[in-house]
Every structure is written in structure tokens, then in C-alpha cells.
Design goal:
CATH architecture of the domain at 66-142 and 186-300: Up-down Bundle
Structural class: mainly alpha
Strand content: under 5%
CATH class of the domain at 66-142 and 186-300: Mainly Alpha
Order of helices and strands: HHHHHHHHHHHHHH
Helix content: 55-70%
Shape: globular
Length: 301
Amino acid sequence: MSGCPFGHGAEPSPPADPAAHAEPAAGDPPGVMEPLPGAPPGMTYTDYLQLDALLTAQAPLSPDHNEMLFIIQHQTSELWMKLMLHELTAAIDNLRRDRLPPAFKMLARISKIMEQMVHAWDVLATMTPPEYSAVRPHLAQSSGFQSWQYRCIEFAMGNKNAGMVRVHAHRPDLLAIVSDAHRSPSLYDESLRLLARRGIAVPAACCERDWREPYRASPEVEAAWLEVYRDPEAHWDLYQLGEELADLEDAFRLWRFRHLTTVERVIGFKRGTGGTAGVGYLRRMLDTVLFPEIWSLRTRL
């Protein structure tokens, strides 16, 4: 007889396995299990994440309590940027190989990372002007403007500026990495080359050019994207690519805006520690458009 869900006429349950309810051995913490096959013997959570190195990487230079916030805010941002570069480099490579589904997954992940970085400014904004003023003298000339990872992200997103390469001239190893990012095709460059491979009319000058130069908006490229957007069903994956690019730039704009407002809230209109104009420089960056035709086409739909 089959078992009744309410217990009437159900077959008797097999006897319980005593071992399944055995008490842990004396001294064992609850939940301890045997290592998975193939796992390095004795490796712990601390070992795997290298927490000893990670959690001793904060070395405040001032006696001020709030410097720990400032350091951890920027260190965690650099970790998120490391993941962004990991995903962005792979997404560009997948576009180059016409492998769009994994590229879409990576671009969506980058947009989510940007959301995390946007909300991180909320934490730094709890630092008041007097608190930052106590820390600022100890920063010397160091500045987020000098982040080589951020520069590589900007270049990979298409915001090419040869002057920004020279910021890293004091470190030949970093200069080589940033220079390589500067002369490589950006995410948008590879997107346009993909459109051309699919038979969409993209100017040849957009597909083979000096990648060190910033991209300039083109009416012909807008027309190419319009062809995609006016018939999404015929060009579904290219249409999805366009929307992934819009999502990504949307998130990037929010990050830049929160950066601006946090800096203005904490230091006002003082010059940046790295020599930039501070808020003035960040305001100008708000006008930078990474994927111009993705936005301009919408007016003509």
C-alpha cells in the first residue's frame, strides 16, 4: 500500500539510523564535518581567504579614530575594482569571440558591483569635515586619482586620455599595465566591431582605428544601433547588448555622482590631495558619455 500523506494507512517507517543522531565527540564544535575529498589538508577559512594578510593591511598614519574608515573604504573599493576588471576583461574577450551569453552575464555582474560601490559612499559620507581634516595631512600626495585599477576600468569603458597614463610613470610595472589598457579596444569598440560582423552598417573607421584615441560619436553608428532597436526580434542579442551597455553606464554615472556629492560634503571645494581641482574636476567628469549612441538613439525611436 502506498503511504498516505496524512499518515492513515502509511507503511511503517524504517528504523532510524542511530549514527544519524549521534552526539559530537567531546570537545568537537557543532557542525564539524570531514574535509571534502581533494581539499588541501588542514586548510581553514582564514587560510583560504588569506585573512592574516588582508586584516593587517590597515596601517593608519594618524592617531585619529576615523582614519580606519577612510582606509577600509578605499581598500574595499579597490577589491571591487579588481573584480570589475576581471569581469570586464573577460566580457570584452567574449564579445571579440562572438560569445554573447557569457558576456551578458559578466556585464550584468559589473553593473551589480557598481551598485555596491555606489552604496559604499554612504558609509564614507559619515565622516564629517573636521574628522577628515584630522586625517588629510597624513595622506601627503596620495589620492584616489592615482588608482591604476580605476584608470584601467575607465580605459576599458572607453574614456581614453593619454595624460592619465603618465600619472603612473613612477611605477614601471603599473605603467605597463595602464599603457596596455590604453592601447586596447574598449568594450564599446568591440561592441561596434560585433555589429559590423553581423552585417550592420558600421563605418570602417570605427572598426579599425587608433584605440588610444577617445571614441567620437557618429551619426552612422547611431543609425546602426537604430537598425537594431527598431527590430529587436531580428537582432535580439544585439538589442540585449545595447541594454546591458545602458545599464552599465547608468550604474557608472550614479557612482560618479555619489563620489562628487561625498567629496563636496566632506571637503567642500578644496583641491584634491593628488593635485586635481577636487569637486570641479568631478563635476566635469559627470559630462563624460561612454556609449553615446546608446543614449542618443532613444530620441529617434
